Amino acid sequence: MAFGDGDLVLLDPAFLPTSSFITHVQVSCQLSVAALLFFDSVITIDDEVKYFWSTPYSSAHLIYFSNKYIGLLCSLGSIYFRPFHATEPLCELFLLLHTSGLVTTLLVDYILLLRVLALYQGGNVKKVIWGLRLLYILQGAVRTFLLVKTRLYEKIAVGAYSMSASMAVCGFLRVVPQIWVDSYWTIPLCFELTLAIMILIKAIGFWSINKKKFGLINVLVQDQVFFLVLVLISSTLQILANQPKIESISAPYILGAIGSPLILSTIGNRLLFHLKDEAERSSFRSESDQISTLSALEFA
Fold it and tell me: TM spans, by residue (predicted)?
């Protein structure tokens, strides 16, 4: 919601019904996302206990619990800041919670990157490994820069329907250029596509030997393709949700909720579960002997 200049922007009371409707839609959408994340955390508790409660602490634990609970807590926190009791500090905190979407996508991208790097360990492929790492850092830095630049450009403001500010909402003084929004959501899609291509190239080499033998490779490819499709859907919906020509009042918020990057955190958790399941089964086959890099350590 874009406002005019001023510390406290007075809004037309005639806009109050529309604002109330928007707030209701936002809260409903955010509650749906939070409910989905909570439901996922419940149904995966068995795998969580098996792989993360009864095993020695590692970096995978930090990635898993950060990926799982940052999205859940931030989605719940966003619901609290929706009603008409906005102040500038609360609006700033609300925007800070929105950075959880960036954190979630970066965490899941990092999980996928580790899977790809595991395939490319060994041999004369150091340039490929460093290239992928550099690409990950670069895309994360660019997205962070765009996010910070957007927040500074928008200039957060508080809009009230009376001088007492008893009914106030968060808003912005300026609307950001559309190219910034499109770029922000296109970058992760390009990175995921690159990872998918890299893992497919390596997988073809393994499949040419014996496709059935390398079950762990099959899991990697399936997860990568599945997640790429989800990123495509998420990015597309976010771009559509931020189109200025959408006439429907509720459509941007509904599209944004369906394409919420927080939902991708559920996929990130399953990436770890799938790999650990397959690595556990592979320990009884000759697969781990054929590919030393796909060891329990690599996928811990």
Answer: 62-81, 93-116, 128-148, 160-180, 186-207, 219-241, 253-273
Nearest to 270 by CA among 103, 112, 120: 112
| Banded pLDDT at 299 (limits 50, 70, 90) | very low
How do 156-160 and 8-10 pair as beta strands? parallel
Residue 297 counted as domain residue: no
Residues of the chain above pLDDT 70, percent: 76
pTM for the structure as a whole:
0.76
**109 lies in which domain range?**
8-290
pLDDT (tens digit per residue) in 235-292: 788 888 877 777 677 777 788 878 788 887 887 788 778 777 766 665 555 444 444 4
Give the pLDDT score at 296.
38
Distances (CA, A) of 148 to 138, 143, 152, 267, 285: 15, 9, 6, 26, 49
Contact 159, 3 (CB under 8 A): yes
* Domain-embedded: residue 299: no
Counted domains in the chain: 1
Amino acid residing at 251: A
In the numeric block, the tokens 């936002």 are attached to 26
Asked if residue 261 is part of any domain, the answer here is: yes
Distance CA 107, CA 118 (A): 17
First to last CA, the chain: 44
Other Cβ atoms less than 10 A from the Cβ of 48: the count is 16
Query: Which CATH number fits the domain that encloses residue 165?
Result: 1.20.1070.10
